Amino acid sequence: MFTFVLKRVLEAIPTLLILITVSFFLMHSAPGSPFSSERTLPPEVLANINAKYHLDEPVINQYFYYLGGLLQGDLGPSFRYKDFTINELIAQSFPVSAEIGIWSFIVALLIGVGCGVIAALRQNSWIDYSVMGFANLGIVLPNFVLAPLCILFFSIYNHWLPPGGWNGGAWPYLVMPVIAMSTSYIAQIARITRGSMIETMHSNFIRTAKAKGLPKHRIILQHALRPAMLPVISYLGPAFVGIVTGSVIVDVYFGTGGIGQHFINGALNRDYSMVMGVTILVGTLTILFNAIVDVLYAVIDPKIRY
Amino acid sequence: MITNKDKVQAVEQFAQQVVEVEGRSLWQDARRRFFSNHAAVVSLIVLALITSIALLGPFLSQWHYEDIDWEALSDISVLGRPNIENGHYFGTDTLGRDIFVRTMQGGQISLLVGVLGSFVAIVIGTLYGATSGYLGGRVDSVMMRFLEILNSFPFMFFVIILMTLFGRQIFLIFVAIGAISWLDMARIVRGQTLSLKNKEYIEAAYACGVSTPKIILRHIVPNVLGIVVVYATLLVPNMILLESFISFLGLGVQEPMTSWGALISEGAQNMEIAIWQLAWPLGFLVVTLFCFNFLGDGLRDALDPKDR
Q1: Which of these, A281, A278, A280, A275, lies nearest to A28 by C-alpha position?
Q2: Looking at chain A from residue 122 to 141, which residues have their Cβ under 8 Å from any Cβ of chain B?
Q3: Does A30 touch chain B (CB under 8 A)?
Q4: ipTM of the complex, rounded to two decimals
Q5: A84 in the Ramachandran plot: left (φ > 0), alpha (ψ -120 to 50) or beta?
Q6: Of the residues A156, A259, B124, B232, which has the maximum number of CB atoms within 10 A of its CB?
Q7: CA dihedral sign, ordered B39, B40, B46, B49
C-alpha cells in the first residue's frame, strides 16, 4: 500500500509540470496584457512596470523565472491587486471556498446516498419515482438558476436569510451557497447509488444473507452498502474538485469572496500569476483526490490489490 | 411408420414456422425496446417540437429579436407583461425587446452549440478511443497516460482561456470546447474496443490484409456506435449547460444575438420586476435538458447490452 501511494505521488510530478507549462504558454499567448487598460499609462512607466515583472523579456525566460519562484513556494505577485502576492490572496479566499465546498460535499453525500438507497429498495414505487424525479430536476436546474431563486425565496419574499456576504462563515450565510452548490451533486450521487444498489441487491451474496434470515437493516448496512458504494467513490474525486472550482457562481451571486471570483477576474484581466496560481492549486487538488479515491477503492474493494 | 410420418410432418411445419419468423438485428431490437419506453418517446416528440418552434418561431411573430418596443418600454412591469394582443406572447424584457422571439433565437443558438460541441467531442473521442484500444501495447499506454494528464487539468481554466483566445466567436469556442470534452468518450470507446478486437470478424479482416486504419473505421467504429449514440445524447445537455454558464458569466454570444443562458442571466437580474423574463427561457431550457436526459436513459436501456 505504501509503495502504491508513493508511486502515485511520484507520477503526479510530471503531470503537474505539464499542466504548469501548458497553462503558462496558453495564458501568455492570449492577446492583451495585464496593464493594457482604458487609461493608458505613459510609456516610460509601462516600460518600468514591464521590467519589474520581467514582461519585457521573452516568454521562455518568464517561464523559467516563474518555475524558479514556484520551487520556493512563491506564486508571484498579483498584477491586478497591487501589494498583494498570490499566496496571500489564495490564503485569504481558499478557506472560504473550502468551507462551502466541504459542507456541500457532506450534504450531497448524505442526502444523495440516502435518496439513492431508498429509491433502490423501493424500486418502481412512487417513492422511487419521486426521488428520481427530484434527482433529474437537480441535474437540469443549473446552479446559476438556483442561486437567484434561493435569494428570491429566502431573502426577498421571506427575509429568513441574508442575501449575501460571508461574515466569517456564520451559518445563515452558508445555507444558500450550500443549497446552490450541492443540488446537482445530490442528484448525480442519488442516480449512481440507485443504479449500483439495485445491481447489488440482485447479487448472490445478498440472497444468501436473506436466506440466513438476517434482519433487513443489517443486510443493507453491512452487506449491500459497501460494494454498492464503489461507483459512487469513483465519482467523488472529480465531484470534490468540481465543488471547489464550481464556486464561481456562488461567489458571483452571494459575494462570498471565494477562489472562483479571483479566477474569473484573473483570466479576464490577464492577471497571469493569479490564473496560474489557481490552476496549479486546482490541478494539485485534482491529482490528490484522484489518488485518494484510488486508495479508498483499495480499502473498500477486497478484490483490488496493489 | 405412421408416427414417424407424423413427426416428419411436424418437423416440416415447425421448419416453415421458423422460416416465417424473421431474424431481428441489434438495431431492430433496440428500436422496439426504445419505442416501448414512453418517457423516452415523449421526450423525443417534445424535443422535435421545441426544435421546430425554435426554427419557425421567429417567422410567427411580428417582432424581430433586435427590435425595441418603445411603447412597452415606458412601463415594463405593466405593458411588458405577456400579452396576445400586442404580439408579445411571452412579454418583453426591460429593454422592450420581445421575449418570445428572443427565446426562439436563443434556442437556435443553444441547440446548435450543444449539437456542434457534442459532434466534435464524439468524432475525436471515438477515433482516439478506438485507435488506442485496437493498437494496444505501448501506444495504448502512452495514449491513456496523455488522457489522464488532460483529465487532471481544471476544465474551467481551458474554457476561459479559450474564450480569451478566440474572442467571442461562439461557434469556434464550442468547437474548441468539444475538442477538450472528448475524454470520457475516448475512455468508453476504448473499453468497448478492447472487447471487440479479439472477435472473429476482426481477425478475418486482418487475415484478408485490410489495413489498420480501415479495420478501425470500417469494423470497430460501426460496432461501438450504439454506446456512442447513448453518450452523445447525454453530452448535448451538458454542452447546453456549459454554454449557458459561459453566457451567464458574460462571455458567450454577442448582443443583440442571445442564447438561453444569456436570457436567463438577464432575467435573473430583473426577476423582481419582470419574472416572465426569467420564466420563459428557464422553462424552455429545463424542459429541453429533461428531455435529453430521458432520451439518453431510454437509448441506454435500448442499446446497452449490459442492462438486458
Answers
A1: A275
A2: 136-137, 139-141
A3: yes
A4: 0.70
A5: beta
A6: A259
A7: negative
